[in-house]
Each structure stands twice: as C-alpha cells, then as structure tokens.
Specification:
Blueprint (H helix, E strand, L loop, with lengths): L2 H8 L9 H41 L9 H4 L4 H11 L12 H17 L9 H5 L3 H17 L3 E4 L4 E4 H13 L18 H10 L14 H16 L9
Antiparallel strand pairs: 1-2
Helix pairs in contact: 2-7, 4-5, 9-10
Length: 246
Amino acid sequence: MTEIESLVNNVRWDHVVVDEDFDAGNNSSKLFERSRIKALADERELVQKKTFQKWVNSHLIRVNSKIQDLYVDLRDGKMLMKLLEVLSGERLPRPTKGKMRIHCLENVDKALTFLHEQRVHLENMGAHDIVDGSARLTLGLIWTIILRFQIQDITIEEYDNNETRSAKDALLLWCQMKTAGYPNVNVRNFTTSWRDGLAFNALIHKHRPDLIHYEKLQKSNAMYNLNNAFTVAEEKLGLTSLLDPE
C-alpha cells in the first residue's frame, strides 16, 4: 500500500458532508492513482523478469541450455536443478523423469532442498509455487539464488574501525571508491545514481581507461552512455549484458 492509499484509507469521514460532485471526483482520482500504481508495478516486474532471465541464461549457457520464459521453463524443476549445479559446482540428485505435476513437484523440491542444505532461507515458498508459475515467488527465488551465489560473499573490511560490510553495502562502497573523482558521478544508491550511464562508464574506465573515452561523454545523453558502457563491457570484457538501456 502506498503512502497515498494509506492516507486515503485512514481518513475518517464521520460527520463530514461531501457533495456528489466532489465524491465522484475523489473516486476518479483514487482510481487513477491505483491504475498508475499497478502500471508501475507491472513495468517493474517485466524489467525484473527480463533481467533475471538473462542472468539465468548467462549461466545455463555453460551446459548448452537456455530458457525462453522464466515463469514457464522453471516449472518442471529440471532447469532449476541445472542452474544450481552450475552455480555451486555440486551434483544434485538425478531429476525425476516424466512431465506430470507430481514429477515437476519432486524436481523443484529437490532444488529447494539443496538450497536449504546451503542454508538459504526460503520464506513462505514451496515447490507448488514454482510449479504453478507464481511470478512473484519465482522472481523471489531467483533473487535469493543471486544473493547466495554471487553477492553474499562480497565483503570489504574498513581498517579504520575494523568493521566488515557485506553484500549490498560492500558493493555500494566499492562502486563509490572506484568512481570517486569522476565528473558528474555521485554514487549514492543502486537506482537514480546510474540513470545517466556515467557511473557505469566510470567503473570501466577506472580499470580499463583504454576502452572508454570518458571525457567525451555528456550527462545529458543517457541512452548513448548506457549503450556505450554495456556494449564495451560485453564485447571487450566478456560481461553478459543483463540490462537494457531503457
């Protein structure tokens, strides 16, 4: 629930006289706001789905496999088990043959059991959620796997106070240190700080100044900056492009 919806729903209308025209206008405004919120949520989910699907395929390519639809192709559990084997380097139990629902549930359960053994916490998630193609829980599962196998081990030790930051905080701090001093770059988060593409280019330039002509980039040309960074990263550094400039 957004702050706007919360405010609207918590207003006390006791003893308040509202004429019909005002009431109609208010309802119209609430309907518009709710439809806008839903549209933004749908757009966010679409971006997440596309990004996570690219991430999954960037690892499955190592075993000559690929998914076409994140919500559909993980339902039988087989691709999910392959993904976990690639990421962990360990062998999971052999997948159950067959395409019936019971076979799919068994395979997904094998994958989830493996994650539990890896001490991955899967709150309120069962094999049936993935088999039924739940968009929200499938996205949640993939994000949990990303955290466990690619982000969790990132740490930066701060020698001045002997504190160790982990995962997201450490990654943010690393980005801040690597982009410090670059004109028009001020990394404060993982959202708005990256929109104009300069931070991505600065990160590449910091490590490979021969690949990026940073001084020629303009803050106002976000699409060019983003395309430039993603193309160079993929073609010159072998980093799979998980994001679209848009």
